[in-house]
Every structure is written in structure tokens, then in C-alpha cells.
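Quick one, T. Sequence first:
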Amino acid sequence: MVKLLDFPQETLSLIATEVHDNASLLSASLAGSHILSAIIRPLLWRHVYIACHMSLGPEDDLQAARITALCADRRRVAGARALNIKLRGRFDYSLRIFKALAEGLRKFINVTHASIDCCESHEVISCGQPGHFVRRVLLSIPSLVSLTVKGCYADDADFGNFSDDEDALGDDDESFPVIAPQLRHLCLKYCGCRMAKIWYNIPRLEVLEMEAGDGRAWHAKEMKRGGKWGGIESRILDVTGPMEVEHAQHLTRLMLRSSADTDSAILDENIFGDTDGHIEHIRTGIWNDLENSVYFFETNALHNLTELVLDLKYNPELFGKLLASAGIASCPLRRLYVGTSKPWDRREDFETAFPRAGNDRGRSPVSFRLFSALRELYLPCDGISFGQLDVLPLLLEELPRLNHLYLGHSGDKDRSHRTFDDAARVYSSIIRTAHTISWTGKRTITVERHSDYSVRRLQNGEYRSPRWIHSHGIGEWWETGMIKGNQFTDV
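C-alpha cells:
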């Protein structure tokens, strides 16, 4: 029997490189083999996590010294592929911590993925905002292709001239200087609207993911009620503000998500403030997001866009206008998700979203005829209630390549298995390319076919949520969220 150590060192190195679980790598490195230890130890530093707790006391200098020591180990720093930085406490850019980080960042020459978490950083007491530090990261790491930023905000000067006065901007290309030509993926979660304009400085961005809304609730859920939210009062709503077609033509994936909506009867006063005027301002901001996104796709097409996730809590009328827009239909979309503020529980909701010719009050009826490349589609209706089963399958028949259909639910908990089976049989018979029919949170039904595409049988299973409707970054091994690597707690 061939033993692991009988393989050449080059083969062992290739095997170890494909293992991304640090616990397994650490166990193998301690197995007593000097050869394995020499191969594996550099791989243990592929994921580096630095947590800075800024106390404005002598502890800050100690943390700065530890960061300097870490960055002085060239072998370890060169082995890093992903860098997570978490900022806690009062933000003061003049601290030695940031000087040590700024000097050390340039040494992470092989880092391709970075994450900056400012959710627990608060009380900015210096002229430099967290956005200035984000800019430093972008300028310092030459191999960076993916950046995730959480709970961060910026000044006008951090990413170029953000003046609202178009005449003042003129035709000066340097208004938004290129600072990260190699970056391909940007994810912003609950960041200020000025941070959103960072992508004006990134000329070839391919994947843009933005989440906004109730940041405090999101942070509590992510941290399982632990940690103190230090974000910018959760009032981060302008997710569509920076959308301009010249900055978006390289996008292959766009995700815009907001957890707040204008249909909420009560907005949490602990989060959004306690005055009627302020709450109305929030509602107006959310509504502007919805209308701006519809207007953008009514007038523009992104010719490389294959994945579009718009979870902006549309009402049925805006939903219908969006699907009927020329820009959406002109994108070579393979996956499409459009969210709504609540489940459609009235016949009027469906009829408003999918107006019929001759009964559309001047609006264009929705047609899927031009979505010729679409493989996966999520619709917020359940596809069964109020006669939808007589209309929707015929609309979707226009999709020649649809493989996976995801439908919402009406909240009817008493709906029988047979109802879903009967509906799936109708959809799969008309949509001859369908592989699965899913109802959100309920079930996924797999379609088995004969060689002539007729339905052979339906296989019931647990609901499988599509991965692409969530933030998932770019690349094969990288996953957004906390990286399980070597952690320098309070470095």
C-alpha cells in the first residue's frame, strides 16, 4: 500500500493546497513529519484575521507592535491569500495602529480577497473616516480581486470628487481616479451612500453586491445578538444612487438588497428615530431606491449582465414595470430574482404585476419572449392562487432554456402536497426544459423526463434555496463571511 509520505514533495504540496480547513491542516502539520510540516505550515497563513480594538489608551500601542511583528514575517505574509480586518471601538485614524496597518498592507502581495468590518467601530474623532482606510487597502494590495466592506462610511474626498454639481465636475476624468484596476468583486453591506460610490474608481468591476436597510437588526442576527452595533444609525438606503451605465458595463452580476420597505406599518423607532418627519424621510429614501432602479433599467442595458438580484421590496406595479422594461430584456440574463415587499395574497396583486393586453391601463404587458438565455427565475407569486395556474405557465412557456423555477408562497399553511404536485405537473408539462419547480420554504420538486421531454415522474424533496440569490463573492474557494483562519484577537 502506498503511504502518503511516499509521494513526491511536489505532489504533497498540490494535495495540501486543495485542503482549506485549517483544523485538518494543523493536525497534519503536527503528525511528526518534518516534510509535511514544512509544506503545510505556510498554508496555515492563507487566511489572516486582524481584530483591532481601539481604546485610545496604551493598549493601542501594544496592538500596533503586534501588527508590525506580524508583517515583519515575510514568509507568513507572502502566504496570505485572504485578509480580514475588524475594527472595534472609537475610530481615530491618527493612531499608531493605522500607521502599522498602512505600512504592513503593502507586504500582503498575494492577498486576493479582503474584508473590512467597521460594524463595531463608532465615535469617529479624527479627520479621517473609515472610508479613508478602505481606500488605503485598495491602493496597497496589488493582487486584490475581491473586497467586502461592512458598516463603513466615507468622506467626499475618500474616493474622488463626489460633488452633486455636475457643472463643477466638468469633463475631468480625474474626478474619479482609478485606484483599483484589478478589482473584480465589491460587496458593501450597510455602508453609507458615499461608500457606495467607491466603484466609480474601479473601471472593470464584474460583481457588485450591495445590502442596505436595517443594519442594527442585521448585525444582531449575524452576531447572534452579540457585539455592539456601531454603524451609521442604519439609515443606509441609497443603494441605487451611484448607478450609472458607464460604470456598470463590465458587470456580470448585480445584487441590490434592502431589508426595509415602504409598506411597513411601523418602522422601528429605536432604529430609525422617533419623529414622524424622520420616518417619512426614510420612507422617501426607500421609495427613491425602487423608482431609480426601475428607471435605470427602463433606459439602460448592461450587455454583460448574466445574474441580477433586485431584492428591493417592489410593489406589484413597480414589479411589472421592471419586468417589462427594455433594459432588463436586453441583458443576457441567465438568473433573475426580483423581490417584493410582501407575499401576493390578492388577485389584484398578480393582475397588477402581470397586466394583460387591453387591460393594462396604458402599461406594457409583461412578456418573457426576449429572455432567451434565462436558466433560473424567481417570482414572488405562488403560481397557484387566484387562477395563476391558468396564466403564468403560458407566460413562462416563452422561455426556451428555463431549467429552474422558484415561486413564492401565499402564506397558506394548509396547502396539501397534492396541490403542489398538480401545479408542478402543469408547469413541467408546459415548460419543457424545466428541471426543478420550487416553492420558497416549502419544497423543491425535481422533474424526470423521457427522451421526448414528456414528464416521466415528479420527485418531491426539501426546498433548496438557490445560492446565487445571496452574497457569494467571486472565485471558487472564497466564501463571504468570517474566515476561519489564524486569528490575532485584539492584535
